[in-house]
Amino acid sequence: MSAMTRPVLNKKQVEMNYLLHEAPREKHFITGAQAMSEAVKRANVDMAIAYPITPQSEVMHLVGDVFAQGHIKEYYRAEEELGTMSAIAGASRAGVRLFTATSGPGLIRGLEAIASWPGHRVPAVLGILTRVINAPLSIQPDNLEMAYMLYSGAVMLHAENQQDTFDFTLAAFAIAEKVDVYIPVAVATEGFFVTHAKGYVNMMSEDLVYKEFDPVASPVPAMDNETPPARIQRDAPVQKSNFMSYLIHSVWQQEIWDSNSRAMKYIYEYLGGPIEVQNPGSDIMILASGCAAAQAREAHRYAQEEGLSVGFVKVKAIRPFPKNEIREALKSAKKVIVPEHNIVGWLCTEVKAAIPNGGIVLEGPRVFGGMTLPVELIMFEIYEALGIEHNIKL
Amino acid sequence: MAEKKRYNIRISGLGGQGVVTTAHILGSCLDNAGNYASLVPFFGSEKRMAPVEAYVRASTEPIYEVGEVIYPDIIMIYHSQVVTHGKSYTMPFYTGLKPNALIIINTDFDVLTEDDTKVLEDLNATVVQFDATKLAMKIAGTELATNMAMMGMVLGLTKLVNTAHIEAAVRERFLGNSFVASGGTAALDSAIEKKFKKKEQLLEANMNVINETFKMADTIDITGSELIVRLKV
Asked: What's the rounded Cα separation, in Å, for the pair A354 and A333?
């Protein structure tokens, strides 16, 4: 479709704070994939590039519709994920706002390029709609791929439900583009459980959009004929001397992780903080992220109804990891239950390392291969931890 | 709805029967009725006659939980092969069933084995059997309306919503006037308008099937001690 025939939309540009916190919202009953594409619609995205993979394909199909309706200027299907993620880096040098998404094996295929985004200062937003990555083939939601992202340098948010998917995706664009951050933000949520499932999402009017990307305000100037390409690729540090290579790379790595930490204040500003806590000070704390937090929230409600000393912590930001906040939330816990949708327990490992008394953190419960995490499984752990008799048969 | 806080519905059928479509419509019906709903479709390999499952949760309060319904209190079986050929995500199809549950099966013969019957009797379940496909053929002239007959029966028996809520949801699904309010959909709208007459007829046929199942549901008592209630089409 040529730019000539595409509809021209007249939308009001606003600040992210107004969009997220002040603009009136209406309730819709939609899928997580719809929620993500509706966020992209309101984010004033210049360009989207993707290669389809289930369950991401639902999101990028809808983003294609959003493009056709005129909300995005450019959109194309790349050759595969390494090409997609490399193209995102290239497009970013032209000074535009970018969105892409992938799932499981697609993320792993694109990881070489993704891991280079922070170093290249690419402020793109990456949707991760989780899917099993290892053999035998499956398309179901297992979030093991997020473990591979933990040390990429990107900011990582983990959405619990359709509403989070909408809000986090919108906020991600503002966080990524802050001058003192300027690295990619990944917004992960579980495939199928969120992407293909319907839930309630409060959304502002689509006549409002986030203010357009300003390449002049960017800390990395956009390339054009007046600002020729930076010499970093042609004159790579490694070609100068080994000493310069070490020096430049070490300084740059520190800067990337400092940028990652500096994202925290914007996570407070836009998302009300990196964690949500209910009933702090309880004997048992259930701590979870993403979809597992939805199951944990339900278990927490059952536990309240039964009058048990159980609290709930939802971790919204995986990177920067909210060590201090988690330490505070768990300071009087006797046991911590960490339900997860993967076999390795990457969140459990992070939590254990974040608190001085890691021994109180239980290994699990975990489901993997994309299985559902029954609330009963969490209740079982609660009863066992409290030493209460129960009749849950698993 | 007032007497029960939460319904967990598991729908098992075969690819092409409209299992996922009905889950979407069922979710919208419950939403229209002012209740909280959530739905999850699961369709492993997307081909005709392959097992397909979808899950709908309905409640008077917000629902946080996601994923498959592992402990259902309503099971809907769209095809006898789900039971006889094990074409479900769990074996047997009633795995995890809660006590006093309702099972609706589309079949023209008794599909339950003696063992099944024993387990279901112990759980005080009620099984409503009827030939939904035959009813769809008879009323709508197409077996594609089987899913409407199944949905009509579960709503007719549970009285979770009324037919106005259902009509709004069916209309939303087939006439697509739900939530797509952007300028660029103008082209799509005009395409739909051309098909409008046909779509209105489709809607009417679907509603006729649903109304018929509501009438059938009123003729039976599912609170009795009998395990299987057979409805004639």
From this structure: 14
Which class in CATH covers the domain with range A275-386?
Answer: alpha beta
Q: Amino acid letter at B210?
A: I
For residues A70 and A65, give the distance between their C-alpha atoms in angstroms, rounded to a whole number: 9
Per-residue pLDDT tens for A357-392? 999 999 989 999 988 999 999 999 999 999 999 988
Residue B16 phi, psi dihedral angles, 5° rounding: 100, -10
B37–A7: do the CB atoms touch at under 8 Å?
Answer: no
Which region, left, alpha or beta, applies to residue B8 given φ > 0 means left and ψ of -120 to 50 means alpha?
beta
From the list A7, A70, A198, which residue is nearest B39 (CB)?
A198
Q: Where are the domains positioned within chain A? A: 3-210, 275-386
Can A3-210 and A275-386 be said to share one CATH topology?
Answer: yes
Question: Nearest C-alpha of chain B: how many angstroms from A231?
Answer: 42
Confidence (pTM): 0.88
CATH domain B6-230 topology: Pyruvate-ferredoxin Oxidoreductase; domain 3 (3.40.920)
pLDDT tens readout for residues A183-201 = 999 999 999 999 999 899 9
CA angle B2, B6, B8 (to 5 degrees): 135
- Which chain B residues have a beta carbon less than 8 Å from that of A192? 40-42
- For chain B, the structural domain boundaries read 6-230
Superfamily of domain A3-210: Thiamin diphosphate (ThDP)-binding fold, Pyr/PP domains (3.40.50.970)
- Calculate the CA dihedral of residues A372, A350, A195, B91 and round it to 10 degrees: -10
Asked if A194 and B66 come within 8 Å (Cβ–Cβ), the reply is yes
A149: three-class secondary structure by DSSP: helix
Please indicate whether, in this complex, the C-beta atoms of A69 and B184 are within 8 angstroms of each other.
yes
Backbone angles phi, psi at A303, to 5 degrees: -65, -40
State how far the Cα of A372 lies from the Cα of B42, in Å rounded to an integer.
11
